[in-house]
């Protein structure tokens, strides 16, 4: 018997994924039907991963399944949304049952942990490409945007930056680090953690937010452009992991933390008037966001300081752009 498109859907996706109570029609029909409360706004995000661009043949299939949903959930987190549903468009060069088992397992683990139901999609034949459209909800009018930052707001990041970029640099033989450090940063590259709970807790507190998919400077730049402001960053406060500080020079570590993508941490701004409430909110959090600077009135200008002195990033290093390089990179994210 030939194993075809609908066999793939039926075997790996139709019955493997638990459904939320608000899913009325799921995988197997022409479209999905979900019940929406009129007191909520729907948030919709989409991300694509392409073989040879966002991952290579050595990337475990389970990691690909984990990551493609994680990057979408990270976009939802940046808007303060609660994940609800997602659809999957999967283009396969051939049917590889071992790969599909690993991929669907990684996807299933993420979907169950974040209570986000697979409700439909499409499968086709061609170069390996994976697209997910994820849907979430926020209370009416409470979505976090990029456009609300004001001069004087404090700038935060949710966790250490640059680890995924370091793992990619080692894979591409641009850097070499001890094995125990490589294993740790590979976890950050292959299995990122979307900051979903933090994003929801920032509603009504943060003035702007974005997830860091293409590098801190690049993604912070989207906030600055949308909000028509500038920023001053204290690099002494930039959170760096042990693998970064023990394996690299200070300049290498800062460069990766500022420009490498795939971190999927949140960058957000908090007004001075909300800072006390924010400090109380995160006082007992296992991972506390770090304040790295402040918003200024200098339109689109970022000032970097180290030890109280101006610090200059090497020319040309500002963050990942999809069409600026021909070499394989691991980054993704909406712009």
UniProtKB/TrEMBL annotation:
<dbReference type="GO" id="GO:0000287">
    <property type="term" value="F:magnesium ion binding"/>
</dbReference>
<dbReference type="InterPro" id="IPR010918">
    <property type="entry name" value="PurM-like_C_dom"/>
</dbReference>
<feature type="binding site">
    <location>
        <position position="320"/>
    </location>
    <ligand>
        <name>substrate</name>
    </ligand>
</feature>
<keyword id="KW-0067">ATP-binding</keyword>
<dbReference type="Pfam" id="PF02769">
    <property type="entry name" value="AIRS_C"/>
</dbReference>
<feature type="binding site">
    <location>
        <position position="47"/>
    </location>
    <ligand>
        <name>Mg(2+) 2</name>
    </ligand>
</feature>
<comment type="function">
    <text>Catalyzes the ATP-dependent phosphorylation of thiamine-monophosphate (TMP) to form thiamine-pyrophosphate (TPP), the active form of vitamin B1.</text>
</comment>
<comment type="pathway">
    <text>Cofactor biosynthesis; thiamine diphosphate biosynthesis; thiamine diphosphate from thiamine phosphate: step 1/1.</text>
</comment>
<keyword id="KW-0479">Metal-binding</keyword>
<feature type="binding site">
    <location>
        <position position="46"/>
    </location>
    <ligand>
        <name>Mg(2+) 1</name>
    </ligand>
</feature>
<dbReference type="GO" id="GO:0009030">
    <property type="term" value="F:thiamine-phosphate kinase activity"/>
</dbReference>
<feature type="binding site">
    <location>
        <position position="75"/>
    </location>
    <ligand>
        <name>Mg(2+) 3</name>
    </ligand>
</feature>
<feature type="binding site">
    <location>
        <begin position="121"/>
        <end position="122"/>
    </location>
    <ligand>
        <name>ATP</name>
    </ligand>
</feature>
<dbReference type="InterPro" id="IPR006283">
    <property type="entry name" value="ThiL-like"/>
</dbReference>
<dbReference type="InterPro" id="IPR036676">
    <property type="entry name" value="PurM-like_C_sf"/>
</dbReference>
<feature type="binding site">
    <location>
        <position position="122"/>
    </location>
    <ligand>
        <name>Mg(2+) 1</name>
    </ligand>
</feature>
<feature type="binding site">
    <location>
        <position position="54"/>
    </location>
    <ligand>
        <name>substrate</name>
    </ligand>
</feature>
<feature type="binding site">
    <location>
        <position position="213"/>
    </location>
    <ligand>
        <name>ATP</name>
    </ligand>
</feature>
<feature type="domain" description="PurM-like N-terminal">
    <location>
        <begin position="28"/>
        <end position="138"/>
    </location>
</feature>
<feature type="binding site">
    <location>
        <position position="262"/>
    </location>
    <ligand>
        <name>substrate</name>
    </ligand>
</feature>
<dbReference type="GO" id="GO:0009228">
    <property type="term" value="P:thiamine biosynthetic process"/>
</dbReference>
<dbReference type="InterPro" id="IPR016188">
    <property type="entry name" value="PurM-like_N"/>
</dbReference>
<dbReference type="Pfam" id="PF00586">
    <property type="entry name" value="AIRS"/>
</dbReference>
<feature type="binding site">
    <location>
        <position position="75"/>
    </location>
    <ligand>
        <name>Mg(2+) 4</name>
    </ligand>
</feature>
<feature type="domain" description="PurM-like C-terminal">
    <location>
        <begin position="150"/>
        <end position="298"/>
    </location>
</feature>
<keyword id="KW-0784">Thiamine biosynthesis</keyword>
<feature type="binding site">
    <location>
        <position position="30"/>
    </location>
    <ligand>
        <name>Mg(2+) 3</name>
    </ligand>
</feature>
<dbReference type="GO" id="GO:0009229">
    <property type="term" value="P:thiamine diphosphate biosynthetic process"/>
</dbReference>
<keyword id="KW-0460">Magnesium</keyword>
<dbReference type="InterPro" id="IPR036921">
    <property type="entry name" value="PurM-like_N_sf"/>
</dbReference>
<comment type="similarity">
    <text>Belongs to the thiamine-monophosphate kinase family.</text>
</comment>
<keyword id="KW-0418">Kinase</keyword>
<feature type="binding site">
    <location>
        <position position="214"/>
    </location>
    <ligand>
        <name>Mg(2+) 5</name>
    </ligand>
</feature>
<feature type="binding site">
    <location>
        <position position="30"/>
    </location>
    <ligand>
        <name>Mg(2+) 4</name>
    </ligand>
</feature>
<keyword id="KW-0547">Nucleotide-binding</keyword>
<feature type="binding site">
    <location>
        <position position="75"/>
    </location>
    <ligand>
        <name>Mg(2+) 2</name>
    </ligand>
</feature>
<keyword id="KW-0808">Transferase</keyword>
<feature type="binding site">
    <location>
        <position position="47"/>
    </location>
    <ligand>
        <name>Mg(2+) 1</name>
    </ligand>
</feature>
<dbReference type="GO" id="GO:0005524">
    <property type="term" value="F:ATP binding"/>
</dbReference>
<feature type="binding site">
    <location>
        <position position="146"/>
    </location>
    <ligand>
        <name>ATP</name>
    </ligand>
</feature>
<feature type="binding site">
    <location>
        <position position="211"/>
    </location>
    <ligand>
        <name>Mg(2+) 3</name>
    </ligand>
</feature>
<protein>
    <recommendedName>
        <fullName>Thiamine-monophosphate kinase</fullName>
        <ecNumber>2.7.4.16</ecNumber>
    </recommendedName>
</protein>
